[in-house]
Amino acid sequence: MDRQKIQARFSDIRTWLTFFFLVRFVGIANAPLEIGHSWRQSLTNMTARNFYENGIDLLHPMIDMAGEKSGILGSEFPFFNALIALMADVFGYEHWYGRLINLIVSTLGLYFFYKLIRAILNEKIAFSSTLVLCVSIWFGFSRKSMPDTFSVSLVIIALYGAYLYLKEGKWLPLFAFFTLATLGILCKIPALALLSVLGVAPFVSSIPVKRIGVLNAFGALSVGVVGLWYFYWVPYLVKTYGFELYINKGLTLGCQEIWGMKAATLEKFYFSAFHSYVALATFLVGLYFLIKKGNSRIWLALSLYTFVFFVFVILTGDVFPKHSYYVIPFVPLMALVVGYFFAEIPPKYATLLLAIIAIESIANQQHDFFIKGSEKYKLTLEPLVEKTIPKDSKIVINGGDSPQHIYFAHRKGWTVDSDKILRTDFVDSLSNLGAQYLIVDKQAIPEALFFYTKASSNTGYVIYQLNRKTKPFERKTGKRIP
Question: Where do the H-state alpha helices sit in 374-423?
Answer without folding.
Answer: 381-386, 404-409
